[in-house]
Amino acid sequence: MLSERLKSEIDNNLKNKKQTILFLNRRGYSTFIMCRDCGYTAKCKNCNISLTYHKFENKLKCHYCGFEMNSLNECPECKSKNIKYFGTGTQKLEDEVKKSFEGISTIRMDIDTVTKKNSHEEILNKFKNNNIDVLIGTQMIVKGHHFPNVTLVGVIAADSSLNIDDYRATERTFQTIVQAAGRAGREKEKGRVIIQTYNPDSYAIIYAKEQNYDSFYNTEIGIRNVLKYPPFCDIILIRFSGSDINEIRKSSNILYRSLKKHFTTRKWNYF
Ligand SMILES: [Zn+2]
Ligand SMILES: [Zn+2]
Asked: Which of 13, 104, 147, 233 is the most exposed place for a label (fewest CB within 10 A)?
């Protein structure tokens, strides 16, 4: 989770009484729960997406609809006890940092720690004023904050947003890294940014590393043009939901055909 290089840079910061920000865009403890015997994975019964393990409440949660259930120590399908928790969220990262550096002080900011009592601003002020060694957080820590004593930023899994099935994935990855990197060394002292990735050849990562907005734009806009993605087209998603699958099929198909007939110059897909 923490590369040797990042560990030694954190070490340097601890010695020099400087602060560090670690960015990971996944909250919770483990992001993927699987049975090693039958391959069962814990998914939300409403959304069919992977449930995330939250250690403190000992619950599995859906980050999409909020569904939660007790954590598993036995497979619901084959009753095997061989359940494995994969993937790293901010809770596990915080654990790992505390284990790796004795006496280190950390503070975590994600949807789970931000409450009415413990607001956004309060967490950030605590980090700044109490000189806490490491701030660990998701997306919400990367924007616009000014921390004079932060000289190191670690982007833990820069790829996590790269492989999602969305035409904006590359742009978002680029943007996030550039913004996260912008948190380091905003005063006279030079900042260091460590980007951990499995895709060092991706242009999103390369140009983010160089902070090269123009080159990123030129590459991205060329690809969008070839694939006819926005801004070269408009995408509209119309989703139907209901309890009777045949009814849904029927009515969505009626709408699909009438749209197709009406807008003949447009391309339509029906899933
Ligand atoms: Zn199983
Ligand atoms: Zn759900």
From this structure: 233
Query: Residue 261 is part of which domain span?
Result: 236-271
Question: Is the residue at 143 inside a domain?
Answer: yes
User: Do 34 and 130 lie in a common domain?
Assistant: no
> Which residues lie near ion ligand 2 (Cβ < 5 Å)?
44, 46-47, 62, 64-65, 67
Number of domains comprising the chain:
3
Nearest to 197 by CA among 212, 182, 180, 184: 180
Instruction: Give residue for tokens 């806009």.
Output: 221
Residue 19 Cα, ligand 2 centroid: separation in angstroms?
37
Using CA atoms, how far residue 244 sits from 140, 188, 249, 250, in Å, is: 39, 63, 9, 10
pTM above 0.85, yes or no: no
Write the pLDDT tens digit of every residue in 188-199.
Answer: 778 899 999 988
Per residue in 155-187, pLDDT (tens digit) is 998 887 887 778 899 999 999 999 888 888 766
